[in-house]
Amino acid sequence: MDILEIQNMVKPKLTHPADVHGECRFMDDIASLMVPWGWPHNVGRMYGYLLLSDKPVTLDKMAEDLRIAKSNASVAARTLEQFGNARRHTEPGSKRIYYTAPEILSGPFASKTDLFDRIVRLLAANEAIGRSAEVNERLEDMANFYEDMRAAVQGVLDRYSPAGSATRSDDAASLGNRTATRAR
Fold first, then answer.
1. Residues 71-98 as b or e (16 or more Cβ within 10 Å = b)
2. CA 164 to centroid of chain Cα atoms
3. pLDDT tens per residue, the chain (184 residues)?
4. Strand-pair category, 57-58 with 97-100
5. What does DSSP assign to residue 94?
6. Hey, is 97 helix, strand or coil?
7. CATH of the domain spanning 16-100
8. pTM higher than 0.70 for the full model?
């Protein structure tokens, strides 16, 4: 047996359409990009899969196509749903659950604006504990940075949100104005 015969034996068989059209590469690339956000690889691959799906897909179908255990697919789907990156659908009279990519693009970013708001409030509230003018200035600069990040992300969310849908939490919406530390 020569090296070519051995290589041909271990080559994966391309049985899924995703393997033929480059979708697997796309799903893997999405997964790699989402790892720094704390997503496990299977969650990222499932997100890529849902982005490429043109109709609702069952958990069984996703597990089969992604070649993962159904239990792993279930965890990935719940994770995506929790962060707003998947939407659950049901059929009347059926227990079968279908998933799609969400129509609202904000996904986890709406919660990031809330996080930015909490950071800004924490920094503003604790500025007085600074040990020096330099420390106070650093805290103020950080508060300003996170407020600018929140405003930028919120601006994008507002621009891409369907009319009338909320992308900010009530807590974040009630904050409204820039912090008092902002000198503008």
1. eebebbbebbeebbbbbeeeeeeeeebb
2. 22
3. 555 454 444 444 434 545 556 788 899 999 999 898 888 999 999 999 999 999 999 999 999 999 999 999 999 999 999 888 899 999 899 889 999 998 877 776 777 788 888 999 898 887 667 678 888 888 889 999 999 999 998 898 888 876 644 443 333 333 333 333 333 3
4. antiparallel
5. -
6. strand
7. 1.10.10.10
8. no
Closest CA to 102 of 173, 167, 147, 10: 167
d(CA 155, CA 159) in angstroms, rounded, equals 6
Residue 28, both tokens:
């893997």
Q: Per-domain residue ranges for the chain?
A: 16-100, 109-175
